[in-house]
Design a protein that fits this description.
Layout: H1 2-27, E1 37-43, E2 54-57, E3 60-70, E4 78-84, E5 95-100, E6 107-112, E7 125-130, H2 134-176, H3 178-197, H4 199-218, H5 221-243, H6 248-254, H7 256-278, H8 280-288
Length: 292
């Protein structure tokens, strides 16, 4: 009876150990009842990859990282062991690439299947590479942004210095010309007062200009123009008569004989008037008494 109890206790302990081992491996993502194949890859740097990270093909999990070991020697490579659980075939030219699974930089492995080449068997060593992940890209972008931001800060600092310099210069100019500014402001105020005081006169002037404009609008320009045209026609006729040799006025101006006769007549008339003034009795006695 005692031996039977010891046997049962031992059997139960073994079962618990097996279940515990299976549970631990299950939590690690390993399936003890699957047909696993193991492959290897050499890396100079695994960039933070850990055991139990998934191995995927096009985003589908086909296995996991089962072990990572250090290979001593001149090259000092890291040996990463991968267990493939799914029944997939690929060549020994396929690539096991470490990449960023999320933005936090958590590493996983993707199997890039290449059809050309010899079929890979369990225990073969595949090509190991590291992809340019989100973290490195963000770091590179942030580095370029940081450089641009530094340049922007430097340029902004220069602009601030120039603004401060201009502000200081403006303050000096204002201080040096404070009296002139006051005089200018006083002059402006004086001009404003004069304009305000003369606003009534300006209104009267504007009203007068308006009245003159109304008067001009009332002038009958057509009739005035006709009168001017008539006067111009009459002047043209007079000038034509003067220039014509058939008219009396034209003959008087153009013919010398008429001019000479008229001049001779005027001379005789002038002599007669002189004689009449000198000897009035000569003409008066004859006319009145009819005499001796």
């Amino acid at each position: 009876m005692k031996k039977s109890s010891e046997f049962l206790i031992g059997l139960f302990t073994c079962i618990l150990l097996v279940v515990l081992y299976w549970g631990i491996n299950f939590l690690k993502g390993e399936n003890l009842f699957s047909n696993k194949r193991f492959y290897y890859a050499l890396y100079e740097n695994i960039d933070g990859l850990t055991i139990s990270r998934p191995v995927t093909v096009n985003g589908f999990k086909v296995g996991q990282v089962s072990n990572i070991s250090f290979q001593p020697g001149p090259e000092a490579h890291l040996i990463v062991e991968f267990s493939i659980e799914e029944n997939i075939s690929f060549s020994n030219s396929s690539i096991l690439e470490i990449y960023d699974a999320d933005i936090m930089g958590t590493k996983s492995v993707q199997l890039k299947i290449i059809e050309d080449g010899v079929l890979a068997l369990s225990g073969d060593t595949l090509i190991g590479t590291i992809a340019s992940g989100l973290t490195s890209e963000v770091s590179e972008q942030f580095g370029s942004v940081k450089v641009g931001l530094d340049q922007l800060i430097i340029s902004f600092d220069k602009v601030l210095n120039e603004v401060n310099s201009l502000s200081s210069t403006a303050n000096r100019i204002l201080l040096n010309n404070e009296n002139n500014m006051k005089k200018s402001m006083n002059n402006v105020l004086s001009i404003s007062n004069v304009v305000e005081n003369q606003s009534k006169n300006i209104d009267n002037i504007l009203n007068n200009i308006s009245n003159i404009s109304d008067s001009i609008n009332q002038i009958n320009f057509i009739e005035t123009s006709n009168n001017i045209a008539s006067i111009s026609y009459q002047l043209n006729s007079l000038l034509f008569d003067i220039q014509s040799t058939n008219s009396s006025l034209g003959k008087l101006i153009t013919e010398d004989s008429i001019y000479n006769q008229l001049s001779h007549t005027l001379i005789n008339l002038d002599s007669l008037l002189i004689d009449l003034k000198s000897n009035p009795k000569k003409y008066v006695n004859f006319s009145v008494f009819g005499g001796d």
